[in-house]
Specification:
Helices cover about 0% and strands about 40% of the residues. It has about 140 residues and is mainly beta.
């Protein structure tokens, strides 16, 4: 079943916050279809560390990041059903830092916050792969 972007919820799960003996064991990204309550584990990787920050983009991808020194920003693209992964790519050109949050402006520019240094960074033009070629006129910035 094809989901509309406002009908799904993307979540990260970090091993630092999980209960003992609970699954998943590694850093994980999941999705929930809000109308049906169907849940899917999208990605899990033992090398990811302290996931924090997740954002839906106007170019139909999910950005998520690691909140640890030298952490990376990742871009996850989905299949049409929005319940399975097409591809995941690290975006090191954005910077290796302790990502506290991710946001986008109305032009589709990506902004990140460094947890340890309290600075905001605009990623406009840093990595052409992360700047959409088709911009959205309405982005939910919550």
């Amino acid at each position: 079943m094809k989901q509309e972007k406002w009908q799904v919820l993307f979540r990260y799960h970090t091993r630092e916050l999980r209960l003992p003996n609970s699954l998943p064991e590694d850093e994980t990204i999941s999705v929930v279809a809000l109308k049906t309550a169907e849940t899917s584990l999208l990605a899990q990787n033992p090398s990811w560390n302290a996931l924090d920050g997740i954002r839906w983009t106007p170019w139909r991808a999910v950005l998520f990041a690691e909140e640890t020194t030298g952490g990376c920003l990742f871009e996850l693209t989905l299949h049409e059903d929005m319940m399975s992964v097409a591809d995941i790519n690290a975006r090191p050109a954005v910077g290796r830092l302790s990502h506290e949050g991710i946001n986008l402006d109305s032009d589709g520019n990506v902004y990140i916050v460094d947890e340890h240094h309290g600075r905001s960074i605009s990623c406009n033009g840093v990595d052409p792969a992360i700047i959409p070629s088709v911009r959205s006129s309405s982005i939910n910035n919550n």
